[in-house]
TrEMBL record:
Residues 9-20 have a biased composition (Polar residues). PANTHER family: NUCLEOTIDE EXCHANGE FACTOR SIL1, PROTEIN FOLDING REGULATOR. Residues 1-37 are annotated as: Disordered. It comes from Thryothorus ludovicianus. Keywords: Coiled coil, Endoplasmic reticulum, Protein transport, Transport. Residues 61-116 form a coiled coil. This is SIL1 factor. Residues 22-34 have a biased composition (Basic and acidic residues). InterPro entries: Hsp70_NEF-Inhibitors (IPR050693).
Length: 148
């Protein structure tokens, strides 16, 4: 969404909206709180933008209904795009269970980081482990925890 030069722009992290405030008057005088409240903000969400007057008395119920319907349509479109992206990613990769089965057929065992960390912790807690084995387990565990 294009905004006039010199506008104050901020990103609202709670709503995910970008807001732009029109600049103060040219002579540098700041507006009163009421005038600032009535200034227009431009909300942009992804590729769709719309201007909203903050004064609640300036909206008709029909305008509000249309704006709400447009927001719902945009949300549905975003969900559809997100779902399609997830589907394409899933087509590129196979589940870990299927990979494990294929590697077992090749006499190779694949372990996840979690499984390796559980083994290292049990080796460290084992009374049968020597001091050198426990130290080695701690070093290896440090590596895997750092990955997480």
């Amino acid at each position: 969404q294009a905004v006039p030069a010199g506008s104050h722009v901020q990103l609202n992290l709670q709503t995910g909206q970008t807001q732009a405030k029109l600049p103060d008057r040219e002579n540098g005088e700041s507006d009163t709180r009421e005038k600032r409240r009535r200034k227009r903000y431009i909300h942009a969400r992804h590729w769709v933008g719309w201007a909203v007057d903050v004064d609640a008395n300036s909206f008709t119920s029909e305008e509000l209904k249309k704006a709400l319907a447009k927001m719902k349509e945009n949300e549905k479109a975003e969900r559809k795009v997100s779902f399609l992206k997830q589907c394409t990613v899933r087509k590129k990769f196979r589940p870990i269970e299927q990979l494990k089965e294929e590697f077992e057929k090749l006499n190779m065992k694949i372990e996840t980081d979690y499984e390796i960390m559980v083994k290292l912790i049990s080796k460290f807690n084992s009374s049968a482990s020597t001091l050198d084995e426990k130290v080695a387990a701690l070093y290896d565990l440090e590596y895997y925890v750092h990955q997480v």
